[in-house]
Amino acid sequence: MEYALFYAEGDEPIAYVPAQDDIGDWVDDLGRRGASEYGERLRPDHDATTVRVRDGRLLVTDGPFTESKESIGGFDIIDVADLDEAIEIASRHPAAAFGRVEVRPFMRWPDADPAARVVPADFLERTASGRRYLMLVVAESSERRAVIGDDGGSEAATAEDAAAAAAAPAEAAASDDPDAWVTEMDARGTRLFGEVLHGPDDATFVSRRQGELLVSDGPFAESKEWIAGFDLLEVRDLAEAIEVASKHPMASGGILELRPLWPFDVHDDHTARARREADERGVRLEPPAAEALDAAIGAAL
Hints:
The chain contains eight helices and twelve strands. By secondary structure, the chain is an alpha+beta fold.
């Protein structure tokens, strides 16, 4: 079974101690077990950009969709025997010791190839040809269970979603078909992979405190927003990422959060790395959202 692991500070974070970071050993163990498909660190939440379409207007803002303590700092996609193994793997990630790990199963479609995986088999051998962003597909209400399908997927939406889509201008209607969006972005080469996640009721949260493993089920802190799925994008710049996100079906009924990847050497001296990165952790390195939006509009004219 495939699971996504999301890393965040959570409600009661403990100070991160770089000297205790054993992420290299964790990654090596996943490799030996054949459990890892792909994972990456994300730029801090200052570099997040959120995209919405409301009443036909494209709205772009700096920052994440949720408060800082719940902002995702990285992710992994793993393929394991069952939830118990996923929890065991999550519990040994360094983030479990100072924050928390969210374990979410991927949706499996009835007509999907049983051998198919979220991450293409040759993905790790591909050379990046642009800037890569994780695009989080966020539903704004725990009462809405809109599901945007991947290849062979489907969409189930509430009357509220349908009304919002009807209020959008005619040119946005072409984006309301999730399969059409996937087909277009795959053809453009901007979507590398992506998939839908089971809802927050199927989430499991894992942390370690004073040697004790803490596991809880269900939605975290009654959040009004939840991650319904994600796609990995490869684009020229933030402006193109905004344009791609604005065409996603959930832009008119939810939120799209764009997070640039932040690769690092897992076997580095993490104390030295933390010192090198200290100055850029509290500032936005991405262009301002308004500037990127202007560029996206200009490119479309």
